[in-house]
Amino acid sequence: MKKLMICFLFTSGLTFAQEPVELELSEAVSYALEHKADAEKARLDIDNADAQIAEVRANALPNISASAATTYNPLLQQNILPGEFFGAPGEDIAVAFGRKWNSNANVQLSQVLFNQAVFTGLKAAKSTKEFYQLNAQLTNEEIIETVATAYYQVYQSQQMLENINSNLELTEQTLKIVEGLYVNGLAKKIDYDRTKVALNNLISNKQQAINAVELSENALKFMIGMSIAQEITLPEQNFQPAFLPGTDLKMSERTELALLDKQMELLKWQKKATLAEYYPSASLVGNYGWLGQGNEIPLWNGKDQGVFWSDLGSIGVNISIPIFNGGATKARVKQNQIEIEKAQEDFQETELALQLAYKNAIAQLENSFLTIETQEENVTLAQEVLEDTQNNYELGLASLNDMLDVERELAEAKNNLTNAQLDYKLAEVSLLKSQGKLETLKENNL
Fold first, then answer.
1. How far apart are CA 304 and CA 231, in angstroms?
2. Most buried residue, 175, 257, 395, 413, by CB count within 10 Å?
3. The pTM of the whole model exceeds 0.85
4. Where found, per UniProt (predicted)?
């Protein structure tokens, strides 16, 4: 049974194994915009806006309805009439009107002639769709920013793993040197043990780094809506900052402000729709129908059996004039105006926040640029110090502590350089976002 289970798991692994896919940043962004649930829901909101527009438009179109009913009256209502009508002066006689069975079929046509609320809704419908389109654009930008951040974090994890591997090779070389010296009686056993401990720690750190790479890759796959089982690879990139993106700021291109502006426009339409309650409304109504009465069911019987059918029709105009509703409309208008003023405050606050984000992105970009130059110099210096210390240690002019310290310093310098490069790439993304140019990441890799 155990062999059978192992065979099954092995063949299952072969079944679900997939060839690794190499992902450029632009490809990852495009994949996310096509497969991510948030992007799809934003597109569905636009489709829903079309349905809402059709619903509003329907209020201005003719409305036709039909109805039919059959009623049985086991007891007919009686009315009291003077006896003179029946040749019995001075007496009151109870007379039942109608028939036990009544059937009717009716068709009604109604058409709005004037309704300010309907006309305002038609004008606001276009703005509603534009609002959802801007919201979808903002959603796409948020997805692009998230994907780009996750994408560069994968590179950071991979670079951290490479740094550990490099440091691991150095420590293994040091261990061989110490071991040789110890065998020849030129080093103490404690030196060998300390070096072995340092090596074991690096092996443990390597496993943690491997896990970090896998976690970052899984996070990226989740961000773009890709199956977690799909293997991915990222192409080699040179993270040297070759340029500073343009530092021009055009607030008119920011989707966040355009969305808030469209929201204020919708709130103004809502206020106009509320004001429309002060206007009278008029509609045209037309009816045509058939009425059947008799003591038998007036569906199959004719006049010869006491069932009578007659048609009827009417055409009219309904006019409604609002006079007084206790100030309810005035209160709603005030509420609408307050919402508009709140939206204006949000607009100003968001504009200030975007200006702050822009300034911070430029400062972070410039600082990261300088930090990268400094850390590159530190890596070069740390490498030179390590080579000198190794030679001195072999000649007995440096201690093991010196050797291990310079190895740690080199590893730290490499990690600092990796972090600075990531900070630079993230600052690039932040700057593009503050400029409203995140869409360029769909076409080009920075």
1. 86
2. 413
3. no
4. Cell outer membrane
CA distances to 83, 93, 98, 284 from 80, rounded to whole Å, are 9, 6, 14, 39
Long-range contacts of 9-18 (CB under 8 A, 24+ apart): 16/229, 18/227, 18/229, 18/230, 18/231
* Paired tokens of 446: 């920075």
CA dist 398 and 9 (Å) reads 54
Percent of the chain with pLDDT over 70: 90
Q: CA 165, CA 416: separation in Å to the nearest integer?
A: 16
**Is there a contact between 25 and 148 (Cβ–Cβ < 8 Å)?**
yes
pLDDT tens across 405-434, in order? 888 888 889 889 888 888 888 888 888 888
Burial 353-373 (b: 16+ CB within 10 A, else e): ebeeebeebbebbeebbebbe
How many angstroms separate the Cα of 256 from the Cα of each of 134, 207, 287, 353?
8, 43, 52, 11
